[in-house]
Amino acid sequence: MIFTRKALKLLNHRLKCSGARLINRRYLQSATNGVVPAVEVSFSNGRNMTISSGKLARFANGTAVCQMGDTAVMVTAVAKAKATPGQNFMPLVVDYRLKNAASGRIPMNFMRRELGPSEKEILSARLIDRSLRPLFAKDYRNETQLVCNMLAMDAVHSPDVLAINAASMALSLSDIPWNGPIGAVRVGLNDGEVLINPTRRELQSSQLDLVVSATKQNLVVMLEGKGNVVLMQDLLKAIKQGTREAQFIIHEIERLQKAYGRHKREVDALPEANSELVQAVKSMCEMRLREIFQDAQHDKISRDTAVNEVRSNVIDKVWSSYPDTDPAAIGEEFNKACRDIFRELIFESNRRCDGRDYDSLRNISCQVDMYKPLHGSALFQRGQTQVFCTVSLDSPESAMKLDTLAALDSGGLKAKNFMLHYEFPPYATGEVGRIGPLGRRELGHGALAERSLLPTLPHDYPFTVRLTSEVLESNGSSSMASVCGGSLALMDAGVPVTAPAAGVAIGLVTKYENNDTKHLQDYRILTDILGIEDYMGDMDMKVAGTRKGFTAIQADLKIPGIPLKVVMESLQKATDAKSKILDIMGESIKEPRKYRKDCWPVSERLAVEPHQRAQLIGPSGLHMKRIYLETGTTLTAADDSTFTVFAPSQAALDEAKELIDGYMHKERVPDLEFGGIYTAKITELRDTGVMVTLYPSMPPALLHNSQLDQRKIAHPSALGLEVDQEIQVKYFGRDPVSGFMRLSRKVLQGPAVGIPRSLNKAAASENSS
């Protein structure tokens, strides 16, 4: 819609009269003169980030473009005007797609266009979602979609952090109710120096790759990172610095929001229940729920069953007294009362529902070497969370090849030789469900566990490692159980990890008023949380690492930010718990297994002279195919003179060596003297020359037309040469590149310079004797 200058002034006047400043003089100038509202954020290291709005995609409720270097990301925010009736959650959808066109490339699939979202795109979308969701109002139920569109990508800056800041800007300028803005920065660490928004090259040498999302007053909203065994003090310094740098982004977005931001629409308040009904629900369930939540004998199933029985009983009785009330509304009031009672008991009794104090771990048991055919296996049990991990070792050719964009994002890495695949079947929670394509949750949990274990693996390991983690039972923190079980399985498989790794989940329960989480009235930090504590609590911080330092961290919040003090205390409790878990894991296996298992694969390097390569490979690779089909052993050319031999077992390698020796074994090769004159036997006439042999077992070598005669000839028949005819040639060694013999007959057409030697007759006399 296009307004005239007069209409804009009139609309601005009416909005001012109603207390809302939607359009001011600067917005009027931008609308009529084409000026794009933009700010430039300057960080402490001198790098700049530009955020603009008002030029692209103006039909959306809010649009922003964030640019750093030559990487630019546009994010649009659109929300429906009304919430869907009966909606009891906030339906936020984030679509993040890396486009080949943004980096000047063409997709290399059959359709030559972008297909479904990749693993990196899904993880980046979850990163944005977790940064924004805590700041939406609790009563907001309108369907909201954020679309992140890559406008341009260079090989220097990553677009995911830019997308978070662009999303913050788009929501702040829109009329969508959101309690932002937030700011996000990527933090690196090199030789103890903190790097803010490092380039891809800097990240390759960085010990830390951490994304920090924060809001006003230095409140942390989201943490996501990986590190190469980062010390506690270095991680704390990086989080503090990242939070401070995010304030520069927040300040500039607020400045644009005051100047150009649209008036926020009113949140449709949820219908308030009758106070008598609320009191009736609470009075009927409070004592029974308190008894359930204080009974440490309950496990996950029995506790859920008892709570569901109370829920059904309360809904039936209250509905009979208030027949005009929707049973769903009664159930919602019961859920609120249940949550309040659960949280109050944590503050009152200083105990949790399973009888533990705040810092205690659940009972842990470990077992390795479960089944003999497996290269490595482990069963890790923590409370009612049970994970079965297996390790498979294969050849380097089994590494996962990355596409162009994924390789660009991973710092030039073209293949992954370590993969962790996480599986969460429905029976893990006693439910009936469909087992189908990999879900976003499974992908995210697997990626977190993979990041946790990757720094402990050696860089020059000759095998590709696939670690599978199947959750058999789940009652909280199955991803961190996958880290513990995965580390045990790797050591059982003999993988030379630098140190064992473990992970733990830290929870948080808070008290605050008026949405002010900066000044918490009270809070409790919970170590090794249960599933119900995750659901009822305010934070789920997953921390993994070795005894020395951290390898991965992920913090998700349900409240709009927490102070740095709480983050520091949570990390300290995670460090203490991690050491206790490693002590228990050490009782099963302390270091990588030294003695070999019969099922372990074997890898060796085989030296082959350049002129023998064809002999080993065979016609059309026939020899290599036969070796693979008969023994399962693969041969891969490492360079011109070396092959890598991979066998699934030592027995298979021994069998393959016998076949290789059979292909490579020939009669004794005479030592040819450089400059020596030998009698050669013609085996074939060709247009380019004749094929000759100097001894019976020799592969035919080409004597070119140019070396047959001092005269120029076009075909050997011009000299009357025939097959099986013997001629004298002079030997000049082998070609250093191809390994072929260099022979000449032309140089002998002159005065006699030596006596010809017949290796064919010598070999025949040896055989006869």
TrEMBL record:
Regions crossing the membrane: none
CDD domains xrefs: KH-I_PNPT1, RNase_PH_PNPase_1, RNase_PH_PNPase_2
GO cellular component: cytosol; mitochondrion
Key words, A-Z: Hydrolase, Nucleotidyltransferase, RNA-binding, Transferase
All copies of domain S1 motif, residue ranges: 675-746
Catalytic activity, EC: 2.7.7.8
InterPro entries, alphabetized: ExoRNase_PH_dom1, ExoRNase_PH_dom2, ExoRNase_PH_dom2_sf, KH_dom_type_1_sf, NA-bd_OB-fold, PNPase, PNPase/RNase_PH_dom_sf, PNPase_PH_RNA-bd_bac/org-type
Gene Ontology molecular function: any one: RNA binding
Tree of life domain: Eukaryota
Pfam families: PNPase, RNase_PH, RNase_PH_C
Gene Ontology process terms (BP): mitochondrial mRNA catabolic process; mitochondrial RNA 3'-end processing
Family that this chain belongs to: Belongs to the polyribonucleotide nucleotidyltransferase family.
Record protein name field: polyribonucleotide nucleotidyltransferase
Organism field: Drosophila virilis (Fruit fly)
